[in-house]
Write a structure and sequence with these properties.
alpha+beta, Phosphorylase Kinase, domain 1, two-stranded antiparallel ribbon, 10 helices
């Protein structure tokens, strides 16, 4: 079996000078590699990765970078068992960087997507992410985002009957609750603070996406759910660049059902109760 360094050298065509572990992440093992040509990179590996796992992440990164309006981790190499991206030296965000992130997300979302969904399925954390397209966002959100993870979380005993009924009731009213129609936005899809690295240039760089065409409020609702330094500045700059439809703040619990149910399916704990509480806010 080839060593990690040998795999990296084969992909990058440059000798590995050193490797060091990188803390964080519960899905993959991350390693910083230093190359003889002076570059540094981040190599992600996972034992027994599902078929297409790293290819899906690489595809999402390239798709987000395609319009040229957002800072996105650069894909250097990908194979079935690993992904290598350019190293991002982390720092703390400044107020100006937070505002720029808001403008960047606005431009990324506005760059659009062909439809709601994506050409290929992907992954959210370690779970499969169904992306088969749908003609409207309410249909896509209910059938591809909320209901699959509700069923999985219930099957695993992580959501009780009362909370499941509350979520199911919201899905029956999804058209009424969805707000004004909007064209598909180009989404990161798993946008929380851990999937955003503030670099030394004081920019927010997107990493670890679960990218697809969806509703732009979904990315913002996830940022709000899990918190982000200087979030108010991010949202203010976003809405100044591209105003959000009236009622977007009241719709946040709707969009948060997706990440809450993913977390309920993966981790259990109180996430099932939080999903039920979010659904009841919409009644």
């Amino acid at each position: 079996m080839r060593t990690l360094a040998e795999r990296a050298e084969n992909l990058l065509g440059s000798a590995v000078v050193s490797t060091s572990p990188v803390a964080g992440g519960d899905t993959c093992t991350s390693t910083r590699i230093r190359l003889s040509d002076g570059r540094s990179a981040l190599m992600k590996t996972r034992s027994h990765a599902p078929e297409g796992f790293f290819e899906a992440e690489a595809r999402g990164l390239r798709w987000l970078a395609e319009p040229g309006v957002a800072a996105v981790a650069e894909v250097l190499g990908v194979q079935a068992d690993c992904l290598i991206v350019g190293w991002i030296e982390p720092t703390r965000p400044s107020p100006e960087a937070a505002a720029e992130l808001g403008r960047m997300l606005s431009r990324l979302h506005a760059s659009g997507a062909p439809t709601f969904g994506a050409e290929q399925d992907g992954f959210i954390g370690s779970l499969p992410l169904p992306n088969r397209t749908a003609p409207t966002w309410p249909e896509f959100f209910a059938v591809r985002r909320v209901l699959p993870y509700l069923r999985l979380a219930v099957d695993r005993g992580h959501v009780d009957a009362e909370d499941a009924a509350a979520v199911d009731g919201v899905m029956h009213r999804i058209v009424e609750l969805a707000g004004p129609e909007e064209p598909p936005a180009r989404l990161h899809g798993d946008l929380w603070s851990g999937n955003l690295v503030w670099n030394v240039e004081r920019s927010g760089v997107l990493v670890d996406p679960a990218a697809y065409g969806g509703h732009r409020e979904t990315d913002l609702a996830m940022l709000t759910l899990f918190g982000l330094p200087q979030l108010a500045r991010v949202l203010a700059a976003y809405t100044e660049e591209t105003p959000l439809a009236d009622g977007w703040e009241e719709r946040q619990p709707l969009h948060q059902l997706f990440p809450l149910l993913v977390h309920a399916a993966l981790f259990g704990g109180r996430y099932g109760v939080l999903a039920g509480d979010a659904a009841r806010k919409l009644t």
